Amino acid sequence: MELAGKLWEYHHMNHTMRPADCIFALGSHDLRVADRATELYLEGLAPLVIFSGGLGNVTRGIWTETEADQFAGIAIRKGVPESAILVENKSTNTGENILFTQQLLKEKNLDPRTFIVVQKPYMERRSFATFKKHWPDKELLVTSPQLSLLEYPNEEIPMERVINIMVGDLQRIRIYPAKGFQVHQDIPDNIWNAYEMLVDLGFSSHLVKE
């Protein structure tokens, strides 16, 4: 858990929230992301909420309604007006979330300059790096459900899986810039050492072949 805690902290961007042109929530199986996006809207931090996500690798097997549509439903039930919501419900990964949302905004003749990106806690940094690769001229803050590592796991995503995903995401942060998927992010030696120790302990199910 000490090693996992180091990765958890590294994956967080620790941005301080401030007003922006829009809130951009990236879809997934974790409905708490929609709760966080809704919370930010109701606090008055942006006039527009974009929910992006079709059915991905995880949700394709458990849901029939797209991630973005479910997220939008949560927001509306909690008090966000439909007129303040845009839905992009075809994307299946973070890169597509961004590219398909770019297309949607262009169709709507909208050009927000500042974004609050809402994602799962362990995907904050990778979302930041992906966004800056595909949308370098925009300003962004990244946030996630305000939960600790011990609070985050639930029946759908137990602790073992959370750690496996964090390990896999750190590997992607290291190798994806060379593939053109993300901008570079520095990885301190102590974080990479924790990664290697977790891999040695068997947390390797989310790794990709290099």
Question: How does this structure look, described?
Answer:
The chain is of the alpha/beta class. The protein has a single domain, classed as Rossmann fold, CATH 3.40.50.620. Helix content is 43%, strand content 11%. It has seven helices and five strands. It has helices spanning 2-11, 32-42, 67-77, 94-107, 124-134, 159-179, 189-200; strands spanning 22-26, 49-52, 85-88, 114-118, 139-143. It has a five-stranded parallel sheet with strand order 3-2-1-4-5, sandwiched between helices. Helix 1 crosses helix 7, helix 2 (32-42) crosses helix 3 and helix 6 packs across helix 7. The chain starts with a helix and ends in a 10-residue tail after the last helix. Pfam families: DUF218. This is DUF218 domain-containing protein. Residues 21-139 form the DUF218 domain. InterPro entries: Cell_Envelope_Assoc, DUF218, Rossmann-like_a/b/a_fold.
